[in-house]
Amino acid sequence: MTAGHKAARHRLDAHAHLMTPERTASGIRWIRRVVPDYADLPEDVRVTELLGEFQAERVGALWNLFYPLRPGQSEEINRWQRALADAYPPGGAAPGEQAPAALPVIIPFASVHAADDDPGAVVERAFGALDLAGLKLHPYVQRLDPLDPRLARALAATEESGRPLVVHTGFSEFYGERSLVEAVFGLARRYPGLKVVAAHMLYPDLDLSDWPELLERYENLYLDATNVLSLTAPGTPPGDDMQALLDRWSHRIVFGSDHPMGMAYPISRLYRLPGSIAPHGEALEDISWRTAARLVEPRRLPGTMALDAVIAE
User: Fold this and answer.
1) Which domain range does residue 267 map to?
2) Considering the chain, what is the average pLDDT of its residues?
3) Low-confidence residues of the chain, pLDDT below 50?
4) Total domain count for the chain?
5) Among 17, 70, 197, 250, whose CB has the most other CB atoms within 10 angstroms?
6) 203-238 pLDDT, tens per residue?
7) Is residue 175 assigned to a domain?
8) What is the CATH number of the domain that holds 154?
9) Phi, psi of 265, rounded to the nearest 5 degrees
């Protein structure tokens, strides 16, 4: 199979982290320990500046993922997500700030903590009054079990709404935690109507060659290749497995930068990865934007991307 295609028609970053100044600064300090490139990004970088970096790389929209570290933070974070998306409309900037034209559309995701007073009510408000686009959980950082009974109502609300659940799944050894392999498939079985997006593809806890059979079995399971494409270079055994997976299953795979806590900086280096490994043009369109666009409602997308997503159905 060959790669090296021209750029995809659109770019939808399905894994971004625009957060409050305090959380952004702590996240950048954390990622510098393993990705020294981020020494070039100031800890006090503003949201407008990050959006400018996305805009410079032709990002038309992004899934924004921001989760609480402790119980009791979820409601404030979810409100912040709604306000952020409202403050940066397409092509605009927040009052008093200057930003490039055609800023990416921010697609804000809710989050929740299992130890919140009422996780189900938190998520229901996030999808109702706040109209957030999906749910994000990070079991390792949040110290929670995705199958915790306290999250059942929240997950059922996500399933009923048709919104996607993005759950961090990979790099268990890096976090010093046990693998989430069983938890991910447990979610897919327990909530068969829930669109479960396995961020980082359970890599390297699950071999890439196992995914085709599993995607066949679990029709509600999607993969997020964020960070994984950085480790699956074409011409290597994992790269061959990734290309084979993309050849058949790209319509179930999304990709993002993890910025400002990704595997490389500047982010242009990350956005070159899909074109280097996609086995054909359709796979490139899928992982660059189309799969992620189909997982959210068209009304959340910028105009031409929404139209193209509908046409592609």
Assistant:
1) 12-312
2) 94
3) 1-2, 94-95, 99-100
4) 1
5) 197
6) 999 999 999 999 999 999 999 999 999 999 999 999
7) yes
8) 3.20.20.140
9) -145, 135
